[in-house]
């Protein structure tokens, strides 16, 4: 089967005042349809840039990204990007925000879809609320609902739960898994949280410090729901942390 | 009756005090020209009875409305272009920044030269005075839009004019409205000055004419009072705009 996403030796350099800084160095990998891939790496290694390139917000200098065998040139509804900071429009209420994402669907289709997805993320009763009236976790659920409503084939998640408190973060992870078990999506998750990657992903790409190269690929073949305290996951966690240069519990 | 912070006493107290001091000061100075608050009130009632008050207020408001709406109709689109397209900004900003510091009052001779004595001169001056705050406010509003909104809209495949109308405009609206509020305030300041020179109606004319035709300082101060009240009401309308849902989000955290 053809891969959903093909990354073909992409490189990217930022021009800064101090001279050119290579960020991505000849990266290549593939993502299968329906696969959940986590990208993990030291902070500032270029993992967010990588995701921006995959989603079409940024162009690589060399190489190419292909989705369904077509080159990616600009952001598409096919792959919705969710960022750490919710980007709900503060001048629209929740329902208005969700309808915005549909971009031109018929009135009837909209109404039933909005109701369905508001229920899916558990925000019933908040249709008329403005983003500023929602908590951080609720805003991120709304963001997720807006993304899911357009039936994206791919979700690009850039530390989506990074700004939330620890408890809400755990709850949102479980929520994401529940939603993904109902709707099939290919997911690319950028995170610096090893546990989050182990909890969610089928495969984990560990990136090197800048310029980012793939340092190691880890297949997580354990069934879900996963228990982070299981010996297999703990062993994986230690080996990933070691890969990142952190020797947790050494000795 | 004391009604807390929203009661009448804190509102009227300082005004009553000012009137009191004013009255005593006029009495003590023995001035024959400078009016007491009571004389001003009588003058105001006289003006109202003769229908002059309404006539002058309407004349001033008419000029402000024309000049201000013309300015808004041009300043908001131009400001949005400047905020969105770097090329438009590079071309227009030096012009705007160069013309902006010139007081509208300095344009009075040119206004009379170009538009003669009549409504057009003050309308032109009001246009000038309110155009710059609105153009600058709009451009700044568009330039400082949080990029994440534009990014999200592009992700949902909004482009071109729809992106502009549905995301850029609402995102910049709070600052556009602030620019409009400043513009209207300046317009109201300038109409009075403009009416002192170019026309024979309006509140500015009322003031200068009352002085020239027999030192009627009671009517001068009455005119000032009306200018203050109308200006306050105009600003209240603009503050009302700032409370709309479409604008308020910017000021909530």
Task: Describe what this molecule looks like in 3D.
The complex is a heterodimer of chains A (251) and B (253). Chain A has 251 residues and is of the alpha/beta class. Chain A has 2 domains: 32-61 and 74-78 and 152-251, P-loop containing nucleotide triphosphate hydrolases (Rossmann fold), CATH 3.40.50; 89-150. Helix content of chain A is 33%, strand content 25%. Chain A has 7 helices and 10 strands. Chain A has helices at 47-55, 94-102, 107-120, 136-149, 166-182, 194-200, 231-243; strands spanning 5-16, 19-31, 36-40, 62-67, 70-71, 79-82, 154-158, 186-191, 203-207, 214-219. Chain A has a 6-stranded mixed β-sheet with strand order 6-7-8-3-9-10, sandwiched between helices. In chain A, strands 2-1-4-5 form a 4-stranded antiparallel β-sheet, covered by helices on one side. In chain A, helix 3 packs across helix 4 (136-149). Chain A is globular and about 50 Å long. The relative contact order of chain A is 0.18. Chain B is mostly helical. Chain B has one domain (34-251): MetI-like (MetI-like fold), CATH 1.10.3720. Helices cover 79% and strands 0% of the residues of chain B. Chain B is built from 11 helices and no strands. Chain B has helices spanning 8-29, 37-49, 52-84, 86-99, 108-115, 120-143, 147-155, 160-195, 203-212, 217-242, 245-248. In chain B, helix 8 (160-195) runs antiparallel to helix 10. Chain B is elongated and about 75 Å long. Chain B starts with 7 loop residues before the first helix and ends in a 5-residue tail after the last helix. At the A-B interface, loops of A face helix 7 and helix 8 of B.
């Amino acid at each position: 089967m053809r891969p959903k996403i093909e990354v073909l030796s992409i490189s990217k350099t930022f021009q800064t005042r101090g001279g050119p800084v290579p960020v991505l160095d000849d990266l290549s990998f593939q993502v299968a349809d329906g696969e959940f891939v986590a990208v993990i790496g030291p902070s500032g290694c270029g993992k967010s840039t990588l995701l921006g390139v995959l989603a079409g917000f940024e162009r690589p200098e060399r190489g190419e990204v292909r989705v369904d065998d077509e080159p990616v040139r600009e952001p598409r509804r096919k792959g919705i990007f969710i960022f750490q900071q919710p980007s709900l429009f503060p001048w629209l209420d929740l329902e208005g925000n969700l309808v915005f994402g549909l971009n031109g669907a018929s009135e009837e289709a909209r109404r039933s879809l909005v109701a369905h997805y508001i229920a899916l993320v558990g925000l019933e009763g908040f249709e008329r609320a403005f983003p500023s009236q929602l908590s951080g976790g609720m805003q991120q659920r709304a963001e997720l609902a807006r993304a899911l409503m357009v039936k994206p084939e791919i979700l690009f998640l850039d530390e989506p739960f990074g700004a939330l408190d620890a408890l809400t973060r755990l709850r949102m992870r479980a929520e994401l898994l529940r939603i993904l078990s109902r709707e099939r999506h290919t997911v690319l998750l950028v995170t610096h949280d090893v546990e989050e990657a182990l909890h969610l992903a089928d495969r984990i790409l560990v990136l090197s410090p800048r310029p980012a190269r793939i340092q190691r690929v880890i297949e997580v073949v354990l069934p879900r729901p996963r228990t982070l305290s299981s010996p297999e996951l703990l062993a994986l966690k230690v080996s990933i942390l070691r890969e990142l240069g952190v020797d947790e519990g050494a000795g | 009756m004391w009604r807390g912070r929203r009661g009448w006493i804190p509102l009227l107290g300082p005004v009553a005090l000012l009137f009191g001091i004013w009255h005593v000061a006029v009495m003590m100075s023995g001035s024959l020209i400078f009016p007491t608050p009571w004389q001003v009130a009588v003058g105001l009632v006289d003006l109202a009875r003769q229908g002059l008050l309404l006539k002058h207020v309407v004349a001033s408001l008419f000029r402000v409305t024309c000049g201000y709406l013309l300015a808004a109709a041009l300043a908001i689109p131009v400001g949005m272009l400047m905020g969105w397209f770097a090329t438009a900004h590079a071309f227009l900003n030096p012009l705007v920044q160069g013309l902006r510091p010139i007081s509208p009052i300095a344009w009075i001779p040119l206004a009379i030269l170009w538009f003669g004595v009549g409504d057009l001169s003050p309308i032109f001056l009001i246009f000038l005075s309110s155009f710059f705050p609105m153009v600058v406010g709009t451009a700044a509003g568009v330039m400082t839009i949080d990029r994440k909104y534009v990014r999200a809209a592009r992700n949902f495949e909004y482009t071109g004019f729809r992106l502009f109308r549905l995301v850029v405009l609402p995102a910049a609206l709070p600052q556009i409205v602030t620019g409009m509020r400043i513009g209207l305030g300046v317009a109201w300041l300038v109409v009075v000055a403009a009416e002192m020179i170019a026309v024979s109606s309006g509140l500015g004319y009322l003031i200068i004419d009352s002085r020239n035709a027999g030192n009627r300082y009671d009517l001068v101060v009455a005119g000032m009072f009306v200018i203050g009240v109308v200006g306050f009401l105009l600003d209240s309308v603009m503050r009302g705009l700032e409370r709309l849902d479409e604008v308020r989000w910017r000021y909530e955290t």
